[in-house]
Amino acid sequence: MNRLVLSRFLIMLSMVLLSAARLTAAEGPFFETRVHGLLKTYCWKCHGGEAREAGLDLRSLPLLLEGGKNGPSVVAGAPEKSLLIQKLVSGKMPPGKSLKPTAAHIETIRNWVAGGARGRYVARGFNEAEKPPLDEKAGGWWSFRPPVQSPLPAVKAEQRVQSPVDRFVLARLEAAGLNLAPPASPATLVRRAYLDLVGLPPSPWEVDRFLADTRPGAWSRLIDSLLADPRYGERWGRHWLDTVGYVDTIGSDNDAKTIKPAPGIWRYRDYVIRAFNSDKPFDDFLVEQLAGDELVDWRRAESFSEQDLDRLVATGFLRQSRDVTYAPELNTADIRHQVLFDTLQTISAGLLGLTIHCAQCHSHKFDPISQVDYYRMAAIFTPAYDVQNWLNSEQRQLQSVPPREKDRIDGHNKQVNARVDALKKKIAAIRTGVSTRLRAAKLARLPGPIRADTDQALKTAKDKRTPVQGYLATKLGPLLAVSSKEIVAGLGQDEKKRVDADDAAIAALNATRRSYEPVRALWEQGPVPKTYLYRRGDFATPGPQVSPGVPLVLDRRKQPTRFPPVATAAGKPSRSTGYRRVFARWLTGPDHPLTARVIVNRLWQRYFGTGLVASSDNFGLSGSEPTHPRLLDWLARELIDGGWSLKRVHRFVLLSSIYQQSTSREPLDWDRAGAVDPTNRLYWRMPLRRLESEVIRDSVLAVSGQLDLFQGGPAVPITARADSSVVVDSTKLARPTDDRRRSLYLTCRRNYHPTELSVFDQPTVTHNCSRRDRSAVVLQSLVMLNGAFVMKQSRLFAARVRAESSKATRADRVDHVFRLALCRVPTAEERRLSLELLVQQANSKSPQRPLEHLCHMLLNANEFLYTP
Length: 868
Prior knowledge:
Elements: H1 2-26, H2 31-42, H3 44-47, E1 51-52, H4 61-66, H5 83-90, H6 103-114, H7 164-175, H8 186-197, H9 204-212, H10 218-227, H11 230-244, H12 266-277, H13 282-291, H14 306-314, H15 333-352, H16 371-381, E2 398-399, H17 403-444, H18 448-459, H19 467-480, H20 484-490, H21 493-511, E3 518-519, E4 531-534, E5 542-546, E6 568-569, E7 572-573, H22 579-587, H23 595-608, H24 629-641, H25 646-654, H26 657-660, H27 670-676, E8 689-690, H28 693-703, E9 718-720, E10 726-728, H29 755-758, H30 778-786, H31 788-804, H32 810-822, H33 828-840, H34 849-859, H35 862-865, E11 866-867
Antiparallel strand pairs: 2-3, 4-5, 6-7, 8-11, 9-10
């Protein structure tokens, strides 16, 4: 009996081991994650893109399996029979002096072939079917599954848990044997919160107010007050404007001297700011931007409510792509198509976090996105961007009132113009009579012999005068001219009453004029165009017609998304298909796998420098996988289930110990932490982040006391100088202090930014920018040390300090400078060195210069330029 049991046990054990062995073999590396990059490094020079030696293309798995002139390059499961492995092992390939793969890299490729030469999905070739086949394996990629809220993990360091976010991060840290850094000081935290939430440093009294609040929940109250601050919308609205590629100009912006403003586009910027300040639910925010015109019956409306106008303005999101079709020579089919394709790229990268644009010419090389998917998505937007019924970039705008109201306003203003013109003619007749009377009196004073000749000379056209008439007109004409002042003085009492009455009537009529302003919006017009799949992405070679749809891999619900047939009225197509509204509702559905993940990942990125998914625009197979997948999904579900409130997600992050920890190395076990997690992806300390370009400029203006916080309205004009610098155009300011407004309101161009912004990596807006670069170059130091803007603000900073501490000692002034610039008092050593500077330079020609130098020095400090 015991032998029988033992025998069965051994059989079962062998089966388990055999299954494990098979499972291990089957779980070899994927093509996309391990092999693709190696082939790109070693083989693409001869077998990728334009170069395809022996007809072999190694850029994708299907092409690799297909092989070339010598047959298949890989035999799945048999590396010894695979031509690719034979060539690599023999050293014949890559040829000559080309970079050779290491033994480890060859072994990786061999193991991949032995494991079955697997890929995450099987790429689809050109398929004219309406619904392309989808490899089920593709759906297993984490970002294509709806987010699921995991239970909060248990952690050892319970005392550091202040937010649910902490549990997910601490669980990873503890598994790696690491701990959080100590909490940052209160003064550091208040500066960090202000810079992150409103983009400005706190004033000394704001710091003092927070430090003096010793009641429980002081930090929570500070966060709530900053989230309610109107400046929050400006700070976080700027992030969104980056994501959509916002600019204030039309076209490519390739000439520094030529600025072509986009009329009314500033309304979209202000809409975004209001949306963030009011915590508009993020799903509504997206729906309005994608289909605001389909939510309002704007064509038949008698008037617009504030919400109606906001929804039309919101579609400015879809008007951010480069559109040069205002120039007749550039209003061509290829450029019209490119505007549509660029818009799709902004939508796919900005909202979905996918590189769907890679499927324009062929099915995606890595992601399960077919070319059919791409053009079905394009069909959603072609009714608005109809290349056969095109509105160029200047014509494509609505007005801030409905069409009927616009007609009424135009009619009213036309009547006003007619009545004003009639009154002006009456005034002109009176003035002409007075002028004639005064001129006759002057003429009568001339000597009799030349009086008639002079009068005739002045009545004769200049080019028909005789030499004598020309002489008389030149010499005596000015004496007979009647000025406006003389006419006013010559008015009789009755004439003056009539003129004054008519002037008052004109003023009253002009006060009744009504106006409207342009709205840079998107809407549909005319018959619904057909959309075709373009072979190789070339509009000149259309393939099959496609209907509107969304990528199949993202729409695997029991009830797939359906786009309604075009509604008709009296046998004619409706003016709006509703396609974009259906797309927007699908995008913001509670089970959509990407929308919430993408936005909470970007929110995390703004606070920590890098998102939980480092490739914030690419959640596909060629992008990064999340460092904390359960945290990402938890935040996404909290956003969705919490009514899509972004401020709610902000609070989860800001109240966490993760956010409140120090950036300092001490007293951490730096060497060990650096060895385990050198890039700090586990968040064992708060990363140090350089401020964005706008925040640096705005902070300089804030500490100098010059910042104008006026909100909204048209962009502040800028101009390019002959020395290549770009500055505010002081000759065209609507308000005297507009040059001191927040950088958000300066004219935003694609390529030419104000110098103070461009040197600190203000992005060039090709499409959009979800993550800014942060460089460290000499020009930044030169601008901060020698730039006219910083030099001027340093002097004004010093003047502010003198005014606010006129009776203070030198030491008190030093303290005040530090508190304004760095939100803290100086250390004993900093105070000593600062006082030495003031004393040493006290005998300079300008008594103000020492304090100016101290202020200038602190504006150049890293502590001023970085979020602590």
